[in-house]
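Repro:
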Amino acid sequence: METIVPYLSATRRKAEIWPEIAEACWQGEREAPCESWRPMPKALASRFLPYFTFRNHVPVWPTPSETFGEGLCRVQETAGLLLEEAEKKTRTLLMVSHGFFIRELLNVILARPEPDEFRHDNCGITSLGFRGAWQLNFCNSSHDEFVSSKPAACDGSLPPTTHEVGFEG
């Protein structure tokens, strides 16, 4: 939230918090997704009140003791929410999250047969487009092993009919 407050302040906008996109899947061992995740009540600090509202106005957050499988459940829920938004084609989304969450979201959205590391630089940006299927347009990473295998980067501009989603990790 602290990352995007300067932008929200400068543009006089309010952002919607999706508790599903909180950091996830940082644990060392992978496991299958759980059927649900454990939300807990979450109040916003007063300094954030002018800038944020919770999705569906439900102020919750994942529990601190979350497992990899619970985090992966949230990742899958987020993929579904993003697909709903992409199919509407009514707006562009900017999602601010963390590298481990983004890694798993890309694996789910792009239907990777084997999980990829998608190693992001700190404050990296990833651009996805949607035209009936997800397309990875750009992934900001200076890691040589990823750069050599990534799809060709674009300049970030997509035709107006494309639904673009940006992620910062």
